[in-house]
Amino acid sequence: MFENDLCPECGVSKTFSGEQAWMDNGDIVQTRDHGHRLTFIESDNLDPLFDGISHLIGVSIEPIVIETVRTNMRAYIRRFVPDEVRERVLRKELDPAKIDEAFANMGNPAGYGRYRPVDSRFEGDQDDFITVSITEPFSLPMCAASHCGAVEAILGYDHAVTYSQIEPNTWHLVAFPYQQPRAFVDRLHSERYERTSGNLLLERCPSCGCPKGLSMYEWFLERGVIINRPLQRRMALIGSTELNPIFKELEDELGDTIPQIVVEAQRRFTKTGFYSMQDVQTEGDFRVQLALRGLGLLRELKINRRGLHMLVENAALPPMIVGMMQGIFEMSFDLDTYVEWEVSRGNLRMELIPKSVAISA
């Protein structure tokens, strides 16, 4: 299925690079939809981050994660399902499971894991279902929600999803008709992204045109896995329209302390050793790495034992960036810190000082 999809020069999936555009302001956007911003991030970070937030607030956030991703995935995929196709499905002229399989296969080059069809029933009643398996999911709740949202986009009405593990690294995801609570109607939708200008030039592969820095990643297309070779970390291409609304909904539900809780959960996870000062390296290297991930354009970075100052224009996922940088600093210098940060017009400014420095000042 994925034969000849890798660029012979840089090794990047041609589907991956052809469907995305890396802009001069630290963005990644969809080639066919510049209003859809994406991030290319370490996916093994995500479920531990969700678990860490749940631990800090004392209640699981998985229902919010699933509802948010389900709703936004439905809205996104619906743009690619013509009304005529949906009508033919409802007339039972087309098999919705086959259409769902086609969308699921698009997730392999993005690092989502491997979806496979298992079983389905479509008679137009409440006993219908579409079951797929997912092997090596980049995030189990997000993969389950994506399956559910795709089925909703194809059929045009609400579903719910359950999952169960059937063997190591493999789960069954079952989407079935379910009327979602009215509380979620007209909620959980992300805003369209409006890009800003920048002046960052990334070196490009002469064969496929993608940023040359992506050659450090390896695509295992049949598995749906992408690995950062030097650091041996798994990566996935994830819409900021999926992650940002999760944090926004948590804030609406639980209060304005949620951004600080996200920072703290990310800081704690970073200090398990997942990131290190090697990730920051020089300011120029870090600027390129942030841009390759679509996290924004690094303008200023100063780090020494007395603190850290950073300015990122057009920042995506600011609480995750702040928590990561705080954790890297504390682990590298073995110091506890205070951190202050703000986002103004999309720009993230972060100031961090060791507690020992603050006390002596």
Tags for this model:
about 350 residues; alpha+beta; Muramoyl-pentapeptide Carboxypeptidase, domain 2; four-stranded antiparallel beta sheet; 11 helices; about 35% helix; globular
CATH topology of the domain at 256-360: Muramoyl-pentapeptide Carboxypeptidase, domain 2
CATH architecture of the domain at 256-360: 2-Layer Sandwich
- Percent of residues in helices comes to 25-40%
Shape: globular
Sheet with the most strands, sense and barrel status? 6 strands, antiparallel
Query: Hey, roughly how much beta strand do the residues contain?
Result: 25-35%
Task: Look at the structure and name the CATH superfamily of the domain at 256-360.
Answer: Trafficking protein particle complex subunit 3
C-alpha termini separation: 62 Å
User: Numbering strands along the chain, what is their spatial order in the largest sheet?
Assistant: 1-2-3-10-9-8
Low-confidence stretches: none
CATH class assignment of the domain at 256-360:
Alpha Beta
Number of extended strands: 14
Q: What is the mean predicted local confidence, pLDDT?
A: 90
Class by helix and strand content? alpha+beta
Using only C-alpha atoms, the radius of gyration works out to: 21 Å
In N-to-C order, the SSE pattern is: HEEEHHHHEEHEEEEEHHHEEHEEH
Number of helices: 11
Written overview of the protein:
The protein is built from eleven helices and 14 strands. The protein is of the alpha+beta class. The longest helix has 17 residues. The mean pLDDT is 90.
Can you give me a brief rundown of this structure?
With 361 residues, the protein is α+β, with helices and mostly antiparallel strands. Helices cover 37% and strands 26% of the residues.
